[in-house]
Amino acid sequence: MLQYLTVPVTAFQQNCTIVWCDETMDAAVIDPGGDLPRITAAASGAGVTLKAIWITHAHLDHAGAAAELARALSLPIIGPHPDDQFWIDGLAEQGRRFGMPAGEPFVPTRWLHDGDTVQIGHCTLNVRHCPGHTPGHVVFHSPEAHRAFVGDVLFAGSIGRTDFPRGNHGDLIRSITERLWPLGDDTVFIPGHGPESTFGQERETNPFVGGT
User: Where are the alpha helices (H) located in 57-120, listed in sequence order?
Assistant: First the structure.
């Protein structure tokens, strides 16, 4: 069964998440945006072995430390969708703009597309391409665990921003209603910032997409 631990990182308190198979104790880290000592300490404390890096999208607080972590531990970088390459190329500039450590550009070991899967130990997660916040944003869904790791697509009571380059509000709403809601009202989602919620709760109460 899939287990996970959320580790807030960077000044943006981004929800970096360590996910692992409780049979093999092999783990992936989703969105290592920074504060690598905190991430590796959390992995060590959980008794897991990091085997891969999974990226939902290439904003600095989600992908800024991916290249450094990949190099330090010889890990593959999986994701996001190739439409986010321009954000990856601009990681250093993002750091300068926000007064944060400059991210290091990289080329993922493997790009992800809608309908792909990723695996850690005996756990398989489905990939959904959910553009809008960024054009290459992806989401990881575990049907077995009824969990989805959604990055900055959807939050408890809110949705992702679409005022960044190549953001698109219409695409974001379609991503939520056409690619997240069908995963089931009982699915708990782990957003890129803030507390967890369920898709059912957001369908009922979220002022941006409630009732859709």
Answer: 60-63, 66-73, 85-89, 91-98
pTM: 0.97
Instruction: Report the domain count for the chain.
Output: 1
Please indicate, yes or no, if residue 197 is contained in any of the structural domains. Answer: yes
Domain span including residue 40: 2-205
CATH of the domain at 97: 3.60.15.10
Is 212 within a domain?
no
Q: Would you give the DSSP letter of residue 10?
A: T
At 102-123, the pLDDT tens digits run 789 999 999 999 999 999 999 9
Helices (H), the chain: 36-46, 60-63, 66-73, 85-89, 91-98, 169-174, 199-205
How far is C-alpha 203 from the chain's CA centre?
Answer: 21
CA 78 centroid distance within chain: 11
Residue 210 lies in a domain: no
